[in-house]
Specification:
The structure is a homodimer of 379-residue chains. With 379 residues, chain A is of the alpha+beta class. The first copy, chain A, has helices spanning 13-25, 55-62, 77-85, 94-101, 103-112, 126-135, 225-241, 276-279, 284-292, 321-330, 359-374, and strands spanning 5-9, 28-33, 46-49, 67-70, 120-123, 141-145, 155-158, 174-178, 182-192, 198-200, 204-209, 212-218, 246-255, 260-266, 306-313, 335-338, 348-356. The longest helix of chain A has 17 residues, at 225-241. Helices cover 30% and strands 27% of the residues of chain A. In chain A, the strands form 3 sheets. In chain A, strands 9, 10, 11, 12, 13, 14, 15, 16 and 17 form a 9-stranded antiparallel β-sheet that branches. A 4-stranded parallel β-sheet of chain A has the order 3-2-1-4, with helices on both faces. Chain A folds into 4 domains: 5-90, Rossmann fold (3-Layer(aba) Sandwich), CATH 3.40.50.20; 119-178, ATP-grasp fold, A domain (Dna Ligase, domain 1), CATH 3.30.1490; 181-303, D-amino Acid Aminotransferase, Chain A, domain 1; 305-379, ATP-grasp fold, B domain (D-amino Acid Aminotransferase, Chain A, domain 1), CATH 3.30.470. Chain A is globular. Chain A is built from 11 helices and 17 strands. Chains A and B meet through helix 1, helix 10 and strand 16 of A and helix 1, helix 10 and strand 16 of B.
Chain lengths: 379, 379
């Protein structure tokens, strides 16, 4: 067979689940992973252990790959350009990916194409922050390092000029944003291929706990149809304007006054799309693979009325296996997805999906299983 | 984590798809494969290349596995007993597996527990075959080598004493069976765990072409509810009486006079269960893994009104990739499962699953895709 080789940079759970989705597609999957213990490295056949920050390692890895894609956004832009210069397709490409790497670049670009965002400005010291606050509704103000933040890291909500000093200590550029008065967070997930085909998944509600995604409900309950359509169209437009290839997650605020504003972008399979593994005709992982290979995309529509995803975080007990057995016995329809990671308190070690006709029941089943696995529910 | 290690003997597509199903379960999967090019060896991380007929190789492989299971039935029974003596759980165990390895043992055992089978007898020469024919409705008679046959190999339908000479040339025991007057073939698939929990999938219709499974329709269209229940109960009873652990496929004849007779047994995931990957809440592969680990089993119920599986056989063109692209574009809901095998005419290289509310439409979509991939349909 002459099926192509997809080179995945990064050995986390997104790579693991992308490999899983690639097996039925018959594609060959090659992984660049930091260590042999990484989540994906445990389950992939063709693994190179190496540092993605080293250009020679990347180049050597890319040889023999038909396309390079990513588990994370941390590969330096100049390395991606070097791979492209070598003739290796990089998807998403560096010109797209920079918008998921640098929040300053992302905000400037979304402003330029007229996509609504929270009020924002690059700030250089606490006095700038005070001025920014004064021009709006005052404090609190959200400060973010423009690069490197995720899951609540690199983000501060500050109430005073004194508190605003912290983010500047690292000496990296800082973005100030209004603290949006939102009723909930949503995510609009789309997938786009190089020849411009694109599909949109239903808009979901995403609930965060301590800055970390906790629960996703698909579709977002009670979301006005017009607003849902607006969110999908916005995500499709961002994908097109930024020339994204692969999965794009657009994290959104639904404001109290009925608008939607873009919070963050991620150009890879995303936690807000894990429900698609069991809840959609084609998962985000399968469609990401299809997109980066410029294959026709699969149907993104849901298979159930409601699907709920709840993340499983590490608790105090390192051994989840007996809890796992209990959860399977309690709910034979439960879909558990474990990442093969060592349990550390608060670490994402898996997720569960449930689906059905009654959203309250579906939510309860997923929350019970995730809580039991973590150890916060004991009966 | 202390998740267990499942050791899979055999590197074919069943092992490949079992690995795929094991990834979300978080179990560790170790493979014993003949060559690194085998279907499963391409996608599994922990692969040992070696000969399963060599006891030392098996013993070395089994060290560090929590349980051993199989992609095929060809491991010698005495080797399995040796592994058990070493303290390694072998699932299914040798006492169960022998019924899937030796058709003579299987028929004797099913007779003993009162499960209806075609009329049969072990025969030792053509004269025996003539006598067997004369005691029933005469020729044709079906002759099978008791070991080693699959996909129509090791099976002869003979019309005369002269034709009956062939099967004896190899010098292995031969089983004679009446040629059953059947209206169609069915399969009853069940999964059973060591502590005795068992689940039954809906009974399916299985259509063969030249002795090779071609199409599976789930559930079997128009099957009388009483007969379906009888088939499920029969499969559950066989699993219990034979102490099967893991997936058991019971291939059945539905006779013109409304009975069901057991044709073959397979104690592993089976071609007649591939539809469960996209059509059931829990796939046969996931439930096989759960069973061999004595984990609670998953819900076997269907997710769609109809699911159809059609095998993709190799055709005259070694490169299926462009046909594959065409099929994805034509039917965004199509589920393709490729095995990573080189295309050879007639070789099973993949299968497709389709599902929906209209059985004719679902059948047409699956047949078109499989035919297009093989090259027998060109538009």
């Amino acid at each position: 067979m002459t099926f192509p080789v997809v080179g995945m940079v990064g050995g986390g759970q997104l790579a693991r689940m992308t490999h899983e989705a690639g097996i039925p597609l018959g594609i060959r999957f090659k992984l660049l992973s930091d260590t042999p213990q990484d989540s994906a490295a445990q389950v992939v056949g063709d693994v190179v252990i190496g540092d993605y920050r080293d250009l020679d390692t990347l180049r050597e890895f890319a040889r023999g790959c038909d396309v390079i894609t990513f588990d994370h956004e941390h590969v330096p832009t100049e390395h991606l350009r070097a791979l492209e210069a070598d003739g290796i397709p990089v998807r998403p490409g560096p010109d797209a990916l920079v918008h998921a790497q640098d929040k300053g670049v992302m905000r400037a670009r979304l402003d330029a194409i007229g996509v609504p965002c929270p009020r924002h400005r690059i700030v250089s010291d606490p006095a700038d922050v005070v001025a920014f606050a004064a021009e709006g509704d005052g404090f609190p103000v959200v400060l973010k390092t423009v690069r490197g933040g995720y899951d609540g890291k690199g983000v501060w909500v500050v109430e005073t000029a004194e508190e605003a000093a912290d983010p500047f200590r690292a000496g990296v550029p800082v973005l100030a944003e209004e603290k949006v008065d939102y009723v909930r967070e949503l995510a609009a997930n789309v997938v786009r291929s190089p020849h411009g085909q694109a599909v949109a998944y239903p808009v979901v509600e995403s609930q965060q706990v301590n800055g970390v995604c906790d629960t996703v409900i698909a579709p977002a309950p009670g979301l006005d149809e017009g607003l849902a359509l607006q969110a999908e169209e916005m995500a499709l437009r961002i994908a097109k304007e930024l020339d994204v290839v692969g999965h794009l997650a657009v994290e959104l605020f639904q404001t109290r006054d009925g608008r939607i504003l873009v919070n963050e972008l991620a150009m890879r399979p995303h936690n807000s799309g894990h429900w698609t593994q069991d809840g959609a005709i084609t998962s985000q992982f399968a469609n990401h693979v299809r997109a980066v290979l410029d294959l026709p995309l699969g149907d993104p529509r849901p298979r159930a009325r409601w699907t709920v995803m709840v993340n499983v975080l590490g608790g105090d007990y390192p051994d989840m296996y007996s809890a796992y057995l209990h959860c399977m016995a309690r709910d034979p329809q439960l879909k558990i997805h474990m990442y093969g990671k060592d349990v550390k308190p608060g670490r994402k070690v898996g997720h569960v999906n449930t689906y059905g006709d009654d959203v309250d029941d579906v939510l309860e089943r997923a929350r019970h299983a995730a809580g039991y696995l973590r150890g916060t529910i004991t009966e």
